[in-house]
Amino acid sequence: MATDLQQVVDALGARLGRSVAVDDRRLRLLAHSAHHGEADSARIESLMNRGVSTELVEHVAAEGAPCATGLFTISARPEIGIEVARFGMPIRYEGAPLGYVWLTANEGPAGRREADGLREAARQAALILHGEHLHDQVSRSRETRVGPRPRVHRPRAQGRGGPDARRGRARRDGQC
Q1: Could you tell me the pTM of the whole model?
Q2: Percent of the chain with pLDDT strictly greater than 70
Q3: How many Cβ atoms are within 10 Å of 79's Cβ, its own excluded?
Q4: DSSP characters for 29-71?
Q5: Rounded to whole angstroms, how far apart are CA atoms 51 and 81?
Q6: Which of 104, 101, 128 is nearest to 39 (CA)?
Q7: Contact 121, 10 (CB under 8 A)
């Protein structure tokens, strides 16, 4: 997942010449591009901790990000570390929110080119994140279904048997 998601982020960052970040729906950092320009406290906190403060999460929610279906803007709030507004695109799979793709406003406006790039990156990220979710579910399901291997009692052959009898037992027991 991380490699594929990182490729999406790096490709968009290179195409737009801007900083790009992807967060999960709880605003935990999943991938980011090289930073262009000056980083605000929120960006630094996200990079250093792979997450942000509760106040910042609440601000993003209050700005409507969880319900967004297209490009949206998160206003600056310097007192909680967002010194620069953000442009975001929700990452959704079949309507379910998975996260966000972000650009910072200090690197320029978000016009049609940026919105199209964010939309495509969000579409790709949705497939990657949903695939990772399915992989995790299958892994957990296997762990709960597969327990210790049951012991099978095999009665020993009567008598000593010759070399052929021993070879037959060895093949049945999976030995070569």
Answers
A1: 0.74
A2: 74
A3: 9
A4: EEEE----S---HHHHHHHHHSS--HHHHHHHHHTTGGG-SS-
A5: 13
A6: 104
A7: no
Q: pLDDT tens digit string along 16-58?
A: 999 999 999 999 999 999 887 788 899 889 889 888 999 999 9
Q: Residue 6: exposed, middle, or buried by beta-carbon count in 10 A (0-12, 13-18, 19+)?
A: middle
Domain ranges of the chain: 2-136
Write down the H helix ranges in the chain: 2-16, 41-49, 54-62, 112-145, 163-172
Q: Under a CB-based contact definition with an 8 Å cutoff, are residues 15 and 55 in contact?
A: no
What CATH number is given for 2-136 in this structure?
3.30.450.40
Q: Which residue has the tokens 């070569």?
A: 176
